[in-house]
């Protein structure tokens, strides 16, 4: 927001708000006062002030812990970070990281990491469900309950009851589908008191257990029968035989890399995707506990979305539906039920087209921004908003709105298939990470800016504090309490557009500017200008430090104690300028700054020649 106030001779351009980055492809002459043509390592606050970005400090080194192991995973010579998760298990918060094929329970703020199992070194994602945390990495499916004496183990899988009220001769009521995770299954028999031989199915591999009777038995695996030494007493579902036939289709689950929760009005089903196909698998219910589970993926419980040529790249719950993204299309998934020929009511998920051109190219990175998903496609960021449906289940009118026009130049340098997203809720910042850069949308201020030296593969917000994980296994705390990046200087630069002060046909003279700055320890910044005539104006230091010994640099020591905002006059004589740029710079390992507003004093002269 800016205002041009005219006096008798002089005019004042008042920049009341900094509006963030705007990389206009037609140049920077049409930027609004307060918009920035460049903004590196400066943050736009919620109140639209310009502030030096937070620094970083390494709090944990997983590579050092990996090197100290007495036994390391075989086949891993160059350990790398693979994924992380934070959440609550059995009432306690845990943070889990996968590095170098080892799963660690860590305290990101420091302390010795604890080894909690091994896995394949591959990009991994985690999700919490049913008081356990689960790992997906395209190679295995593991889980951990958070116990101090336990570790990540292979998910064996729920054993379904395939028939109930079965007679010894077979038959009965079909109940649950077999589980992809295991070849084990159960049959509940109702003995008639006469038959001693009970039929399962032909060509079984083994009988795992028999409950409900203490009679001895023999097994004919080819015939699929269990024969007791005597006929069990008559009863209803009193004899339960658990057996195994095959090993299921476990690899179909283990190839998946991401998860989302959805079941209509609730989030009681786990949807797995990310195996490079257009198929997703969804979980069933644990009838033994009458509870949802992430360890039962029944045969036939799957959905295929669109054509087989393009894979599912992201799924995200959006109101009462779930959006499903492919590389070049978007779909919605809606909960419903259907009755089969046997009169059984089954859950079905209707897949409806939303957009046949736009989708998401960043695997697993479509996330909610407040109430609406963001996706990355065609070097742009799209926000998806739902229209009123009026109960219609045959169509979906979610609309894609492009929200990244102001930063398209920066996004053009991102490989979207390798871009990682992170929503910093406390600061209302949505981060896009790639190649050591963080492109940030502050959705409270509707402003974009760029942070450099952000080499993070993943980020977590833990009780309001932000931690980044590097490929080399370093965990860094990102906070304003640090004025540097592990001792390295933070180089920040902000440049306005080429301002003509609403009169591009007139020459301007400007003798000075006024900079309002918030006092704090080490508060300082260099100010300069550029015009269409010169780019070598001197840099002037503006400071408003407070007395203190935190981050002290005696070259800039101040005994100031007044915490009220201060306005500093900066003499910069600009003559015969048509276009005028204001520039703020900082290269320091100890400085910080929060710029509140800026006034530019100017006087109009003759016409441009």
Summarize the helices and strands and which ones pair or pack:
Layout: E1 2-6, E2 11-15, E3 20-21, E4 35-40, E5 42-44, E6 50-52, E7 55-61, H1 62-67, E8 81-89, E9 92-99, E10 102-106, E11 114-118, E12 125-129, E13 132-136, E14 141-144, E15 153-154, E16 161-166, E17 173-174, E18 184-189, E19 197-199, E20 206-211, E21 217-220, E22 225-228, E23 239-244, H2 250-254, E24 258-263, E25 266-273, E26 279-282, E27 285-286, E28 291-292, E29 302-304, E30 312-318, E31 321-326, E32 329-339, E33 345-355, E34 367-369, E35 372-377, E36 380-385, E37 399-402, H3 408-411, E38 420-424, E39 429-434, E40 437-442, E41 447-451, E42 456-462, E43 465-470, E44 474-479, E45 490-496, E46 506-517, E47 524-531, E48 540-543, E49 566-577, E50 580-588, E51 594-607
Parallel strand pairs: 3-4, 16-18
Antiparallel strand pairs: 1-2, 2-51, 4-45, 5-6, 6-51, 7-44, 8-9, 9-10, 10-11, 12-13, 13-14, 14-15, 16-17, 18-23, 19-22, 20-23, 21-22, 24-25, 25-26, 26-29, 27-28, 30-31, 31-32, 32-33, 34-35, 35-36, 36-37, 38-39, 39-40, 40-41, 42-43, 43-44, 45-50, 46-49, 46-51, 47-48, 47-50
